[in-house]
Amino acid sequence: MFELPSGAEIQGIIASVQGSVGLFIPEIYLSALFMLLIVVDLVAKGRKNNLLAITTLLGLAGSTIFIYQQHGLPAGEIFFGMYVLDEFALFFKYFFVLSAIVAVVVTMADEQFDREVKSMGEYYALIVAMVIGMIMMASSADLIMIFLSMELVSFTGYILAGYFKRNPRSSEAALKYLVYGAVSSGLMVYGFSLIYGITAQTNIIKISLELAAHGSDSLVMILATLLVLAGFGYKIGAVPFHFWSPDVYEGSPTPVTAYLSVASKAAGFALLMRFFYVAIPHGALPPEDTLGIDWLSLLMILSVASMIYGNVVALWQKNVKRLLAYSSIAHAGYLLLGILVMDQFGTQATLFYLLSYFIMNFGAFYVVILISNKTGSENLDDYRGLGKKMPLAGAALTVFLISLVGLPPTVGFIGKLMIFSALLTKGTLYMWIALIGIMTSVISLYYYMLIPLNMYLRESKSPDEKGMNLALAPQIILAVLMMLTLYFGLFFTPLSDFAKYSSVMFGITLQ
Amino acid sequence: MLSLIVFLPIIAGLVILAVPSSQKQIIRIVSLLAALAQGVLAVLIWRGYDPSLPGITAGAGGSPLGSFQFVEKVPWISLNLGGFGSLNIEYFLGVDGISVTMVILTALVSAIGVLSSWTIQKQVKGYFILYNLLASAMMGCFVALDFFLFYVFWEIMLLPMYFLIGIWGGPNREYAAIKFFLYTLFGSVFMLLVMIGLYFSVTDPATGLHTFSLVAMATQTNFNVAGAIFAPENHLWRQIAFIVLFVGFAIKVPMFPFHTWLPDAHVEAPTPISVILAGVLLKLGTYGMIRINFPLFPEVFHASMYVIGIFGAINIIYGALCALAQKDLKKMVAYSSISHMGYVLLGLSAGNSEGMVGALYQMFNHGTITAMLFLLVGVIYDRAHTRQIDKFGGLASYMPVYAAVVTIAWFASLGLPGLSGFISEAFVFVGAFSSETTRPIAMVSVLGIVFGAAYLLWSLQRMFLGKRNDDAAYDLVTGPDGHEHIHFHDWKGKLDLDGRELAMLVPLVVITIFLGIYPMPVLGMLTSSINKLVQVLSPVVMSQM
Predict the structure, then answer these.
(1) How many other C-beta atoms can be found within 10 angstroms of the C-beta atom of residue B143?
(2) Residues A86 and A505: beta-carbon distance below 8 Å
(3) What is the count of structural domains for chain A?
(4) Are residues A272 and A353 in the same domain?
(5) HEC sequence for A309-376
(6) Segments forming the whole domain that contains residue B133
(7) Which of A103, A288, A318, B265 has a CA-to-CA distance to A163 between 20 and 30 Å?
(8) CA distances from A311 to A356, A464, A474 (A)
(9) Looking at the DSSP assignment, which residues form a beta bridge with residue B72?
């Protein structure tokens, strides 16, 4: 029944795989690092945890060399169209490796790990595994590959969220994350199966060609898009797929929260952009025509709902991590605005916003960790009077929060500026949605400023003025992050040029 | 030169950052030195300013040079945006007649604010760092000629102000601070959208590229991008943009009905911050209108002159009536600010040279006079720890110098001839009466002068004349020499004005009197710019486009 492939075909397949492996080196390297970390953990059991962390840091730093080497390579599909290599993917490779590095640095600063778990064990290995998964998410060009990579990210995410085994909140976070994750990936796979049913293809470029050639039933297509969006929306934490995020963000170890809120969200965006730009609209269309595309209006609804819901609900939060969780829902909305524009400038703006979000959000979570090290609390009320006790941390947090609001001279302002500029290049088409974005950012000022309000304007409940000085290393890291936030708010050309360079996606030419 | 005057306070702030927080005196002196250096630079700019050059729009050949003065223009950011060409932002400073007066005012009020801050005892280091940041941002706003740069300075002002009110303010400071912050941010975020829209609608004739330059935007022929959102034929969006910008600036002025943050902010803010707020910050609102709102959308301005005039009249009368009803002296002065900023709006709405010159001159005078009023309120609050008008009485005989300065300031505020306020208000009314559109409004607004005189004279009478009230905030004691003195409960300093207070007040008094008798130093700088502005705004020029 099955015909065995001929020798020549096998030769061809082997040659193709061999060719592809050469373009897969960063991923292979990271997989090796993952295994090395497990071995190091076994060998160094019982010794200081720093060995593992430093190995991870060095390993991750080393991976950038291999990523850098990929710049000269021609963009294209590898592994029979499973995977792509292009500037867009490269951007996210850097992004994820860097965020993993920052996550490790942040973890090293968090004293809660010393209290909650005996050994760091597989923690760092899982961080690296998640990097691999996310890189693959950003580079997948095939429905199967998309699903596999997303599951890799999700599984590592579940374990990381529940890493404080004895802490009920952490376990609750992991379970919630798992349940929502399972449901949404189930829905997504159902969406994929519908798309496969329409087109008989799994490669997204072939899907787009098939859709362009034969068209499709719009009802089936909108259903498929909706289901797929359930999976992507869960990853980016957009309304109405956000229900997991406040609990998970609050319960998880804070470094994991920061990591999930930045990297995992960015991975979701990478996937969303590639999938919708390449697969569905069958080639970039002029803006007048794209307006009617169903998925674009769906994204628009998601974006508006996220901005409004995230910013409004955050007003009532009493826990800083939870507050930042709602803020991250709102930021998913702003990021979606850039995707809506569907041109090169829009992509550039989205990527820039991701970079700015990287700096300011990690910064904010880092301060939250440092404060919780000293006070043991993440409640807004316990932030009272901290501005005087921890001047640097207070100033840095204020800068990060101002950046999250989007006020100059911070990188967050430039991010918003780029997004809104991209929207306004379409004339009055997206004016109303830009207005919503602007209005909600005014609302966001109120809750972000609650934190400086407590830190500076209110007196501490416990009048003891005992020293809360930070160690030197965290001080330096904070100062660097703060300076970056301000520096890129004034001289943002390098970031923006990098974002522009990276807005090239294989298989589609954006105007 | 302009860069230096803008960034001097920030440099001082960085120096202060390095000073240990226990060295309060050094911190104060560093700030004072920076403010004085700013003052010296302001004088140099004033002396070097050539009043014959008009500014407002570009000079010959589209170059801002030759029209603006002390121009500094360097490319700041140039972004490649692929299909959309590039995003060009310039570090572009310069002054014309409108801004040079404001630069001088800002330098003056900042320096007086530093002196007035001497009494701040809580977290001196943080206070002066924020104060200097604020001073830099204010100055930057007045000299920026690139919309992006202007916006950056505009927003940088908010955060220091929030903390200065929020940390060093009165009992209800949290509410006042966040109210201020939210109100102004609400106004300015829409400005951001308009700014982006303008960028894509305007090209610089010199380079042919899109630009944020306010100088290029002030020439209507530069709105030459077909299909752009603010292209000349896009009337609806141009009107919306005008309204949005106007509201953004009107919140800062503050114009009725966006004024409610001002009394709260003033009552809670410490004295120096009130001085800065009333003396400089409010002017940014009207300055923004003159620099951005009107010249960029002249046809909309023309169509809405009477509306602006009506709002100005409401401000004048409503502010005065509210001031009449206040029991708290500082709140009264705050409402008087609203009333006096109404004159500025009225003068602008007249759209002719007299009205505009009056408005600009009123901005300058209101800056000096209100600074004086708030300082004087601060003086009595320091001593009595209350500002309730009915807790005083008969102060004139015990604090004669104070009473004398108060009298001058109060009379200047109500527009007594011979003091500077009179001239500016007179110009405003001359302008408003000579314009067909605003004549009826001006007739109604005259009432405001009567109410203004009423609340000022009434408060003067209640506080300084007559005898000590029974529940006054001070005791009467008979001194060893047999004369009666008054004694404030826990006030250790000099009863009447001390040296520092005189140092703050005397320059302002001198300026007020001098400019009331001989206004030409300020008017001379204004006239050619205003004439140019009126020309830019006139419908004749627009119809020739």
Answers:
(1) 28
(2) yes
(3) 2
(4) no
(5) HHHHHHHHCCEHHHHHHHHHHHHHHHHHHHHHHCCHHHHHHHHHHHHHHHHHHHHHHHHHHHHHHHHC
(6) 2-543
(7) A318
(8) 19, 35, 30
(9) B93
Q: Which domain holds residue A479?
A: 305-511
**Which of A253, A283, A313 is the C-terminal boundary of a domain?**
A283
Answer with the residue of higher pLDDT: B383 or B82. Answer: B383
Contact residues, chain A, for B200 at CB < 8 Å: 421, 424-425
Confirm or reject contact between A498 and chain B (CB < 8 A). no
Q: What is the mean pLDDT of residues B115-140?
A: 89
pLDDT at A465 over 80: no
pLDDT digits 0-9 by tens, B366-416: 999 999 999 999 888 888 888 888 888 778 878 888 888 998 999 998 888
The first and second tokens of residue B487, run together, are 């004694």
Taking CB atoms and an 8 Å limit, are A407 and B181 in contact across chains? no
Among B156, B173, B196, the residue with its CB nearest the CB of A421 is: B196
Which residues lie below 8 Å from residue B5, measured CB to CB, with a gap of 6+?
B38, B41, B42, B45, B103, B107, B139, B143
DSSP state of A71: G
Angle at B262 between CA B106 and CA A414, to 5 degrees: 65
My answer on whether A351 and A222 are in the same domain is no
For residue B231, what are its two tokens?
């292209």
* Nearest of A436, A441, A432, A434 to residue A419 by alpha carbon: A434
Tell me if A317 is assigned to some domain.
yes
Name which of A56, A69, A94 is nearest A354 in CA terms.
A94
Give the model's confidence band at A120: pLDDT under 50 very low, under 70 low, under 90 confident, else very high.
Answer: confident
Alpha helix (H) ranges present in B146-206? 147-156, 158-168, 173-201
**Are the C-beta atoms of A254 and A365 separated by less than 8 Å?**
yes
pLDDT tens for A75-88 read: 888 888 888 888 89
Say yes or no: A121 and A63 in one domain. Answer: yes
CA dist., res. A154 & res. A14, Å (int): 31
Q: Is residue B39 within 8 Å of residue B111, measured between CB atoms? A: yes
Probe site for chain B from A337, A389, A424 (most B CB atoms < 10 A): A424
Res A283 pLDDT > 50 = no
- Average pLDDT score over residue span B503-531: 88
What whole-number distance in Å separates Cα of residue A185 and Cα of residue A361?
Answer: 26
Cα(B344)–Cα(B277) distance, integer angstroms? 16
Mean pLDDT of chain A: 86
Question: pLDDT digits over B144-177, tens only?
Answer: 988 999 999 999 988 899 989 888 888 888 888 8
